[in-house]
Amino acid sequence: MTLNHIFQETIAKHGAKVALRYKDNKVFRDITYRELALRVREMASGLASLGVGQGDKVALLSENRPEWAITDLAVLSLGGIVVPIYPTLPAPQVAYIVGNSEAKALVVSDSKQLKKAMEARQEVPSLQLLITMDAGPVSDDAHIQTFASILERGQEHPLSDKEYESHWKGVKPDDCASFVYTSGTTGDPKGAMLTHRNFVTNIDNSINFFINDGERITENDVFLSFLPMCHAFERTTGYYLPIRAGASVAYCEGVRTLTEDMAATQPTLMVCVPRVYEAVMERILDSAKKQPEQKQRIFNNALKAGKAYAQAKGFAPILAIENFIYDKLVFGKIRERFGGRIRFFVSGGAALNSETAYFFRSLGTPIAEGYGMTESAPVMSVNPPNANKIGTVGRVIANGEFKIAADGEILYRGPNVMKGYWKNDAATAEVIDADGWLHTGDIGTLDSDGYLKITDRKKDIIVLANGKNVAPQPIEGEIKKSAFISEIVLIGDKQNVVTALVLPNKAKLTEWAKASNLTFDSEEALLKLPEARKKIRQEIDAQSGALADYEKVKKFTLLPVTFSVESGELTPTLKIKRKVVLQKYAAEVAEMRGDSAAEAA
Length: 601
Description:
alpha/beta; GMP Synthetase, Chain A, domain 3; Rossmann fold
């Protein structure tokens, strides 16, 4: 099977069903699988008439929208290789990926992305064709086309049934479907070569995993597409997997319209990263605090009862009755904000805070936390909704296997592991050994039931001057449970004690400061107040009770900034680039290092 076979099978089975839903003038419009198939074929014909064919790389620089899927499926049907690029990346990184992949064509969404594409073309001789999805300039020499003009070419120069079938059927399972460039927390991004087999086995094994758990994904499901489709997690589980099931995909405009879009599309499933779930939880909690005292009390009691029910082992009739009552009074109303039909959420890309997991489980919308890497297309394990062990990332998917190396590193082997990195044999040899094991770079343990728990990143382990090892991620996760701390980066390699850079939740801190009658004229001034520092100190200490003394943060610096993809501290998947952060704030780190040395002395 290839992705082409999957698409054609779904067209035959579910042609009249809605495939994609997108917003047009604030109203959702539908595209059926039959209509999608027609546009894909027209796009494939148009691209073929311009010389795009077997083995050619076509880069995609766009936000989530139907044209993304149409282009992707069209290129795959021609035997081409799709190179997705995060639309948040700056022009130099776009140029690097386009050049490294040797892309023949680059399809962009709008004038903003077209500007990056124009810069890239000056540096990349292989780039012959630029296509913009939105209306724009059309060049006579076909170097710049609009999406509409490609479809028109496809209508004017259509591939015959025999030609089209020959193209998509000619693609083999082990042919490359995509080069997916890793976010790259250090160094230049690397292009993971993912084959049709990698994607298809990952889709089918993931679907079978949920069937075995008692959850079927069918043509009646509606997926809300929120994460970028260039993210391997969203692409496989929020795009290819729904197509395999004949389900619908509705495109969310963004975080600002998330609640509105959920209400309008009534999704049954959604794939997202922990930060979004945390933000939704905080919004609900903040809203509850503004309610009259009696409603607040009912809400808080409901959460306690819900968590107790979620943590109960075996059947607990009293807790079940209590939870049923609160579900009618509180949780059902909250679920209506999600459209009222959510069966469960799926989380990946980073560690999910246990408090967030229990919160959503209490609401009756459990989060199935998964684990994976771009290099494994990407799913390796999932926490089953009906046998969820919060605090773990679940069990390995069908036809995959885990092994814990002698140094604690998690190794994975399965049919979804990439061919390797494009034009980088040395990097490939570092992550895939001679026996086919993918070295994840994560440290973890497997329990007696086969559930995997990740404890840290192998390269992020802090080694203090006294030789003690500190795993920063679990500690950062615990400290971020405080509503007053948005982000924290632990530091301590070769230091005597652990120090940290802290990004406070400025809105929460400001609210607290005003209630405490503190005087300040700016956020920066607020962070310099001794009372503010004392408050953050209390919050850090309150979340550090279970830590060994050497693991506790002894010194910290408050930063009046926000980390973002654009400013370089975050990867497109919202992971912190520790190296970048340490370089940007080297002076603050050095000052704490000196203080910590003095304290130890």
